[in-house]
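> call design_seq(struct)
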């Protein structure tokens, strides 16, 4: 199937089969997160979520960096004319905090292909995703304290769940950079590969996931998210309800038939 490409100024969104690839495309600024890029990331994620034909979203960066976080030049201007304690929370809610809300609400599994430096909000952007694969050039840093600010994009909520409180605390309080191999040992990433293998390895994982039943894949993603929020009893009720929906699909019948016939199932999202 030929690739479809959406038109954006700060990012690119390519769709091939059931896989969408969102690339931060401002390498001259190290893919820093400005207002325009934030708007486009949220819009692209929303478009992927609405498209029932899509099963996986890959997030990566153009050039040498994944994402340098906030634009330091813009931060200097804001530091000189900082908003009031009432205005700043509003600007965060209406700005960068829309990204974790959007990605966390997606039923489509998300994979960050971390090609280079993921710093500050860029590190958090990678952590917002369900899974991460890193290039040997990747490095991660929660550097907010070095700038005299807190991680206002919500990154620690995700980081502590991925690597545990103690490791997240050390990484955040010291603001030190973590290379790809240490990130692997900490559980931040699934694997580390050579730069030229990053997208092939990520696409291989995406294709394996995208081969599953689209509808039940999205249900399962919801269940994984609900597992972090619900009590066991409420969670069991939820799994039963989703199972009722799953068993009403044609894909369920195809999955059982394929298993009996000892072949790979061909799921059609029905």
């Amino acid at each position: 199937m030929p690739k479809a490409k959406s038109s954006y100024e700060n990012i690119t969104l390519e769709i091939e089969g059931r896989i969408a690839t969102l690339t931060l495309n401002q390498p001259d600024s190290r893919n820093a997160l400005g207002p325009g890029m934030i708007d486009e990331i949220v819009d692209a994620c929303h478009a992927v979520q609405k498209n029932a034909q899509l099963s996986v979203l890959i997030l990566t960066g153009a050039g040498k960096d994944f994402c340098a976080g906030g634009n330091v030049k813009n931060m200097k201007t804001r530091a000189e004319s900082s908003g009031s304690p009432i205005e700043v929370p509003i600007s965060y809610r209406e700005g960068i905090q829309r990204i974790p809300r959007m990605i966390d609400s997606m039923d489509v599994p998300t994979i960050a292909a971390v090609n280079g430096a993921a710093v500050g909000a860029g590190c958090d952007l990678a952590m917002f995703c369900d899974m991460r694969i890193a290039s040997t050039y990747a490095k991660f840093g929660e550097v907010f304290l070095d700038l005299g600010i807190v991680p206002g994009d919500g990154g620690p909520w995700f980081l502590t769940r991925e690597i545990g409180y103690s490791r997240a605390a050390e990484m955040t309080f010291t603001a030190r950079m973590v290379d790809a191999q240490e990130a692997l040992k900490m559980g931040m990433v699934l694997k580390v590969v050579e730069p030229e293998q990053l997208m092939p390895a990520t696409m291989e994982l995406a294709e394996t996931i995208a081969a599953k039943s689209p509808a039940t894949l999205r249900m399962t993603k919801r269940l994984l998210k609900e597992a972090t929020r619900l009590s066991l009893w409420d969670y069991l009720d939820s799994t039963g309800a989703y199972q009722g929906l799953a068993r009403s699909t044609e894909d369920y019948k195809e999955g059982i038939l394929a298993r009996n016939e000892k072949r790979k199932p061909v799921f059609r999202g029905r």
